[in-house]
UniProtKB/TrEMBL annotation:
NCBIfam families: GlcN_kinase. This is Glucosamine kinase. The lineage of its organism: Bacteria, Bacillati, Actinomycetota, Actinomycetes, Mycobacteriales. A motif (Substrate specificity determinant motif) lies at residues 370-385. Catalyzes the ATP-dependent phosphorylation of D-glucosamine (GlcN) to D-glucosamine 6-phosphate. May be involved in the phosphorylation of acquired extracellular GlcN derived from the hydrolysis of chitosan, i.e., in the incorporation of exogenous GlcN into the bacterial GlcNAc metabolism. Monomer. It comes from the Bacteria. Keywords: ATP-binding, Carbohydrate metabolism, Kinase, Magnesium, Metal-binding, Nucleotide-binding, Transferase. ATP binds at K101, S152, Y153, L154, D159. Mg(2+) 1 binds at Q271, D283. It comes from Mycolicibacterium crocinum. D-glucosamine binds at D266, E374. Belongs to the actinobacterial glucosamine kinase family.
Amino acid sequence: MVRELDSLDLVAGKRLSVVRTDDGLTAQPQVRELDGSWRRARPGDGVAEALLALLAAAPELSTVGSFTVRAWSAPVATGERAVAVDQTNESVIVGDAAVVKWAAHLAAGPHPAPRRLEILRANGFRFMPCPLGMVTWRPKNGAETLVVGVDSYLPGAVDGWTWAVDLIAAAAGTPDASDGEVAAAASAVGVVIAELHAALAVTVSTASSADAERWRATASATLEEARALGDPTVADLLEQRRDLIDELLSGIGAMAGTPVIEGHGDLHVGQVLHHRGGYAVIDFDGNPVLPVTERALPIPAVLDVAGLAQSLSHAAIVARRHHRVDEAALLRVERTAREHFTQSYATHLAELGHDELYDPAYLRGFRLQQVLREIVYAAHHLPRWMYVPEAALPMLLDEGAAGER
């Protein structure tokens, strides 16, 4: 059953609607039929074009009913085609100039993206698709949430899981190959994430004891859920390595007094596009597994770093499954990627004058939390992904993690 809750007229016969379906709230582009009825628009129906035109003509900030329109620098463009790989949004490329992202699953507000993007724009962060505009919606007695975002189109952009897996597989699968390309790519991404955190440093505050206890409790709860949902091998490993796991996760609870920022919150290699100009970070929507009230809260910078670093390990596991690669070579390349990323990040952050934001002592603990979250996510939503965290868990626990805890 579909029930319309609200709508924003774009031009005659085209609108953006917020509708309730059996799966929850969604932002739905709609076009009017000749008989006056409305149907969901498809790429080519011109609704994304109409949104661009509205943004191009609108003031920088305006309110229309329950909708707020932020218009920054949207072009007028024509021609629509779908983006097939986007699972979070329903994305449409318009005229090779812009990407319109209709929110397929509306998250309850407050939504972190509007504020984070405005901060990044104001501080000149250049390693992201240029934000061209967005529309948010505020339900009655509710908080503002994002319904559609518009970014510049990056020609030739490759999804992070694709470029990372291919790069790691190529290095591990070629006899006597140098790891130089992997090291260079990981180092470049480290610079990008350091620039991201430096741009967000204006939001810095200090973690309270309650913050640290919340992080520890969340990690412990994730551990217990992963223990219950993973297969018997996972449960056995978690029991066998209980002392190390408890040490890593309890350390997260000792972070009171450390700096925190409004970080990305859901950073992994899939959020980093590779394009002709380098690398670009996308999707500032916060971590979807967290309660709504926590998605916009400040985080330690190391949490973002851990998410990206651990996803490089996951990319190596995917490469092992889909490519003929030597196991020892793959582990070498995975370590090269992870270490060059973290070293480049820390070095460049210090060069930017913000080294106080990052404490690598907690890196391994947050990486472990991410693996446990992947187990929970796979069990609930994507069973075919379970092989990744099940392989990543012993890899992480067996590391000789000098300088980490």
